[in-house]
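Quiz preparation item.
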């Protein structure tokens, strides 16, 4: 059982920064921030969960079965992540590429403390065993009276590439040959940027990344010595009651400080035939994935190829929804749609096989999902893109970017789009 207490918040930006700073004392942290980009499917402005009472950590083998059992037995809020490589549990696939980060394939925890910000109020939901700490915690957070462990950070982080430009072109050309042969229609091809023997201050690095990006599905995740600092613009999947929503992104354009030029860039993206074709292919894939769980005839495309503007880029987003039976297990809905179509391709299984052969690194948490389940079986997960991943013990920092390759793709333009997507992460790390 949880005790719920609400408090008014005066200075919301400062309270949020204090709240995440206060959370750093715990081994398990999930912080989700909408950055005031509320939509019709938003449930909160920000949400924090800390201090695991129970934990599930596993590799890909029987991962969804283990998660299903854990979610049912705990019957409480659980927060965590699903790595991309759980594809190996949903299909007969494998992951044998280089893994510098060494994160668990799946990690969830049942938090003792949950703090939700909605409007100008902070709602504390603590397990009864720690409920007497609510008032003191609110006071500490409000006053900013807590100490952060100082981290000896690396100056001038040296970013390396998993593949160089010429090799990127060669591999994209191989991907295109698969497309021209008819093996696939589209695939998301990604590359990793990384730094070894590197230490970063995860908290301050996240604050910098978030201030640059102000993304609607930002998150800070910590499990012991492993961190995910995400400025994700994309929702993977959400369930509210018997409704499920997915919002894939396909289509990216840079922004301009000149208002007139920015408007031209936005309109150009909205009318770009190649970008629209990419988006529509993924919409079809998501419709197919949702139909596995959906009540017959309930899958609906609510928005098709709508362009939204963020701090760094314009993005083309579609919204697909479906209704599910009340008896449908929530973990099964995720299992039947995972990994998300926007990060794989079409047909999905064939694309994932080709991706595994051509990408030079194990994706791990990148292009996986961070989120939570409620005691009622609702859930919400982002797509882990525009994210810095960090293993403090291994002194390894990584961020990856990718793009959809279709028959009309030009390798040079795809490479430029990757650099655009990588801009915020590189900026934050190199100016650390």
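Solution:
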């Amino acid at each position: 059982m949880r005790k719920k207490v609400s408090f008014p918040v005066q200075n919301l930006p400062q309270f949020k920064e204090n709240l995440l700073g206060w959370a750093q004392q715990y081994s398990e942290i999930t912080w989700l921030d909408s950055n005031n980009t509320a939509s019709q499917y938003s449930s909160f402005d920000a949400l924090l969960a800390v201090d695991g009472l129970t934990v599930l950590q596993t590799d890909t083998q029987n991962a969804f079965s283990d998660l299903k059992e854990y979610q049912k037995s705990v019957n409480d809020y659980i927060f965590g992540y699903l790595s991309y490589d759980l594809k190996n549990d949903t299909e007969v696939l494998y992951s044998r590429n280089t893994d510098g980060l060494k994160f668990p394939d799946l990690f969830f925890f049942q938090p003792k403390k949950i703090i939700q910000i909605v409007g100008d109020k902070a709602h504390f939901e603590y397990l009864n065993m720690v409920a007497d700490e609510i008032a003191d915690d609110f006071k500490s957070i409000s006053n900013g009276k807590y100490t952060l462990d100082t981290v000896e950070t690396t100056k001038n982080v040296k970013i390396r590439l998993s593949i160089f430009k010429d090799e990127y072109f060669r591999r994209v050309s191989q991907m295109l040959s698969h497309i021209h042969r008819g093996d696939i229609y589209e695939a998301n091809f990604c590359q990793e940027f990384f730094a070894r023997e590197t230490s970063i201050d995860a908290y301050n690095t996240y604050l910098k990344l978030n201030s640059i990006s102000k993304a609607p599905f930002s998150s800070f995740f910590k499990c012991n010595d492993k961190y995910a600092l995400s400025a994700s613009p994309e929702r993977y999947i959400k369930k509210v009651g018997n409704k499920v929503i997915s919002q894939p992104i396909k289509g990216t354009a840079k922004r301009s400080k000149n208002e007139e030029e920015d408007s031209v860039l936005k309109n150009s993206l909205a009318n770009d035939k190649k970008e629209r074709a990419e988006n529509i292919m993924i919409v079809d894939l998501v419709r197919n994935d949702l139909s596995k769980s959906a009540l017959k005839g309930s899958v609906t495309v609510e928005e098709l190829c709508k362009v939204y503007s963020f701090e760094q880029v314009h993005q083309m987003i579609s919204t697909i929804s479906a209704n599910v039976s009340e008896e449908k297990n929530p973990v099964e809905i995720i299992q039947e749609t995972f990994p998300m179509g926007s990060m794989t391709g079409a047909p999905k299984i064939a694309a994932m096989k080709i991706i595994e052969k051509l990408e030079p690194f194990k994706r791990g948490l990148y292009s996986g999902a961070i989120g939570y389940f409620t005691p009622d079986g609702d859930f919400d997960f982002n797509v882990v893109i525009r994210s810095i991943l960090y293993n403090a013990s291994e002194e390894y920092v990584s961020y990856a970017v990718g793009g959809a390759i279709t028959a009309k793709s030009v390798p040079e333009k795809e490479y430029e789009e990757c650099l655009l997507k990588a801009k915020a992460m590189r900026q934050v790390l190199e100016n650390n």
